[in-house]
Amino acid sequence: MTTAASPTSPTFLDLLRGAERANRSLLCVGLDPDPARFPAGLKGDASRIYDFCAAIVDATADLAIAFKPQIAYFAAHRAEDQLERLVAHVRRAAPQVPVILDAKRGDIGSTAGQYAIEAFERYGADAVTLSPFMGFDSVEPYLRYHGKGAFLLCRTSNPGGGDLQAQRLASVDGQPRVYEHVARLAQGPWNTNGQLGLVVGATYPAEIEQVRQLAPTLPLLIPGVGAQGGDAAATVRAGWRADAPIAVNSSRAILYASSGEDFAAAARREAGRTRDALRAAASGG
To answer: Considering only CA atoms, which of 54, 195, 225 is closest in space to residue 127?
Structure first.
């Protein structure tokens, strides 16, 4: 079991900013292993999830600002032990790159405390994704961990995200949308350990820009580039600021760039192409 960070350890934001500088990257590599899509020699074999993901990590370690394993893709195949091994492998192969556990947890405080142990002590993640819709007491247990990050779902990339997130609230400050209210809370009173961030989808660049105005200093985790069709340049223009990092996630486009034995090399090529496109957008290219 991995222990929580000590007060002298780098914080999640330290790691994220360090990886951005060292790898000149805004690219988060999502690790969503589906054995049915594995290349020949691995295809259909859930016992090889670690092998597949470790090869992707090795191929992209110098191109990523973060790695983001999605816990459901491991748990569905009884591969939680492989996830533990994978995070440990990232620590060895890419110690400068933080790990964001994509779990989207959201439960009452006592249960949230157990989920926090799972994320930070069992798996050793540097940050975790959370649903904020049960309120601050469902988020606060994660913030007790010194230096550990938490990304709150804010304006997600899926088509149904607007069913709730885009609805307006009655408020003395006008009628903010739910996602705008979440952004204000995260920028303000909820950010008790200074490591809070927001999840905003690349498929909605106008909303990214609005979230950035409301949360000017928070890190943003931005899924939806690649297979989901989000525009890399528009995403960066809307969300990136020199003093507020973004991690733009691509999963399937990188993982399954090739179905052959060259899958890791193909993943590296796709990751490099995406990394370079994001860098160019950040520099105004």
So the answer is: 195
The alpha carbon of residue 236 and the mean position of all alpha carbons in its chain are separated, in whole angstroms, by 15
3-state SS assignment for residue 49: helix
Q: Minimal CA–CA distance to 156: which of 236, 246, 221? A: 221
Q: For residue 171, what are the CA distances in angstroms to 105, 132, 143, 210? A: 27, 19, 27, 18
Rounded to whole angstroms, the Cα distance separating 60 from 273 reads: 11
43 included as an active-site residue: no
43, 68, 104, 148: the active-site residue: 104
Predicted confidence band at 202 (pLDDT cuts at 50, 70, 90)?
confident
Could you read off the pLDDT of 25-74 as tens digits, one per residue? 999 999 999 999 999 999 999 999 999 999 999 999 999 999 999 999 99
> CB burial class (10 A; 0-12, 13-18, 19+) of residue 2?
middle
Residue 256 confidence (pLDDT): 97
User: What single DSSP character describes residue 283?
Assistant: T
